[in-house]
Design a protein that fits this description.
With 264 residues, the protein is mainly α. The protein is built from 7 helices and 6 strands. It has a two-stranded antiparallel ribbon.
């Protein structure tokens, strides 16, 4: 059943009433970036060189995204596609995911000729999103939060879904470490809403610690899927590689009304 226009039941929390960003979140973002900078920036330099050697065009890709309280900002990523690639294909893919209950898989998981050398590896390991630390330093994003969406996606959100923008978007988040490509659009929204209601210093740290295992699991699934395709064996969907962090963030559907309710 499509739950796009159904309002999920939610526990109230003071942190989600006004869209206010707690001070500890900004402090945590800056401290983590400073600590990681001796490793982070050399890795970004190596990736920049690979992109420059692999294809013509700029190193960074600039794209308008929707962030805190629906505000637009310029999101930075490493360019993983050819210059002037047709973005309408990606927008159409996002629309199909929103209008269906299909898993949130990326287009390049099915093969995309627009991807440059090393582009697919960067996307699979989410290293293409490292320049977003600049967005974090600017205050457009946080290290942890919902995925910043495209304006065309935002226009399709109904009122209850737009509450996911009560907090800053992030490089990683509750959805990313709770199944990601095995979840539907509505499940992603519910994870984002639950993160906003329950965000805390401990939850952010927990999500950060779970991000690397989640990425490794995602890369493993991609590698295993490629091997199965090349050998002609049927692919098996093993489900989410990681369980949700705690029970309050897991949802199920009411058998009678089809309404999403938290799992007790």
């Amino acid at each position: 059943m499509n739950l796009l226009h159904e309002q999920p039941m939610a526990r109230k929390s003071p942190s989600s009433n006004s869209g206010r960003i707690p001070r500890w979140k900004r402090v945590l973002d800056i401290v983590c970036i400073v600590i990681a900078s001796p490793v982070l920036f050399p890795v970004m330099m190596v990736i920049s060189i690979l992109i420059k050697l692999g294809s013509k065009g700029p190193i960074l890709f600039h794209q308008e995204r929707v962030g805190h309280l629906g505000q637009r900002f310029t999101c930075l990523k490493f360019r993983t596609m050819v210059t002037a690639a047709d973005t309408s294909l990606h927008e159409g893919h996002c629309t199909r995911l929103i209008d269906s209950e299909a898993p949130m898989v990326k287009m390049d998981s099915h093969g995309d000729s627009r991807v440059v050398p090393f582009g697919r590896q960067l996307r699979a390991t989410v290293l293409d999103e490292l320049p977003q630390v600049i967005n974090v330093l600017r205050g457009d994003m946080s290290l942890v939060g919902p995925r910043p969406c495209l304006p065309c996606e935002y226009d399709k959100h109904v009122d209850w879904q737009k509450k996911r923008y009560n907090t800053l978007p992030g490089l990683t988040g509750l959805w990313q470490v709770s199944g990601k490509n095995t979840t539907t659009f509505n499940q992603m929204i519910r994870f984002d809403l639950d993160y906003d209601r329950n965000k805390s210093l401990w939850l952010d740290l927990t999500i950060m610690l779970r991000t690397i295992p989640a990425v490794i699991a995602q890369v493993w699934e991609i590698w295993k899927g490629n091997n199965q395709k090349s050998s002609g064996r049927p692919m098996l969907n093993m489900g989410s590689p990681l369980k949700p962090i705690s029970q309050p963030i897991a949802f199920t559907e009411s058998a009678s009304a089809g309404t999403p309710v938290p799992v007790a």
